[in-house]
Amino acid sequence: MSEAPAIVATDVSRTYELDGVSVPALRGVSFTVEADDYVAIVGTSGSGKSTLMHLLGGLDRPTGGTLVIGGRDVATLSPPEMARLRNETIGFVFQSFHLLSRTTARDNVALPLVYRGIGRRERRARAAAMLERVGLAHRMDHRPNQMSGGEQQRVAIARALVTGPSVLLADEPTGNLDSTTGQSVLALLESLNDEGVAIVLVTHDREVAARAHRQIVMRDGLIVSPAPVTGEEGAA
Ligand SMILES: Nc1ncnc2c1ncn2[C@@H]1O[C@H](COP(=O)(O)OP(=O)(O)OP(=O)(O)O)[C@@H](O)[C@H]1O
Ligand SMILES: [Mg+2]
């Protein structure tokens, strides 16, 4: 309980500039990920869920507001410092996997360990153990284009977990899985949470969201539920 929060976003905004047009994808979001959290982010397509996840994971920087990851204000960090903080703290499962297509499952999973300076043998052993944990022991030497969508999703999850992150951010981690495989991925996330890993996931699936300990709902670049505390009455 007294443990410091994993991530604190305060009035964070993110505006994309696209062909001279400003797209306000996030319009002032305050959100704390506690060290032992298990939270689901839900909301309509385009409401800003992935944009928020990218910020929480230190993959992108806010255009306004303050973002503190692992006690460090990202505005004060250089790109290499940010990359290091990310590698040490965060596991990220992308909505679109982002696997290297010409690299085996095992080497995809081992890749984050390269940046830790861990030797090849140890990297391959850890990657194999993690692939086993997501039920892919029999697909280690397959490349992503030789695997189903659900298998690729599990490789992406294994890659996010191989560094032993304190926060796992997963954008639609069960979106490509049949219900049995989806259940086993959720069980894996929940056992990690029991071991003290904070879990933030985005989902369109009500049942998946309901298993989290809390939910936040996004609409139009804002958190609409639970209602934000503004300190101003009727700031609608
Ligand atoms: N790189 C970008 N450049 C310009 N606009 C973007 C970019 N990425 C996202 N957007 C816009 O920002 C808004 C929020 O996008 P985001 O991907 O965060 O939505 P989402 O809630 O994750 O949606 P989905 O459920 O479909 O994944 C959308 O209107 C989207 O078109
Ligand atoms: Mg998205």
Automatic annotation (TrEMBL):
PANTHER family: ABC TRANSPORTER ABCH.1, IMPORT ATP-BINDING PROTEIN. GO terms for cellular component: membrane protein complex; plasma membrane. The lineage of its organism: Bacteria, Bacillati, Actinomycetota, Actinomycetes, Micromonosporales. It comes from Actinoplanes friuliensis DSM 7358. Residues 7-236 form the ABC transporter domain. One of its GO terms (molecular function) is ATP hydrolysis activity. PROSITE patterns: ABC_TRANSPORTER_1 (PS00211), ABC_TRANSPORTER_2 (PS50893). Keywords: ATP-binding, Nucleotide-binding, Transport. This is Putative ABC transporter ATP-binding protein. The keyword ATP-binding applies. InterPro entries: AAA+_ATPase, ABC_transporter-like_ATP-bd, ABC_transporter-like_CS, ABC_transpr_LolD-like, MacB-like_ATP-bd, P-loop_NTPase.
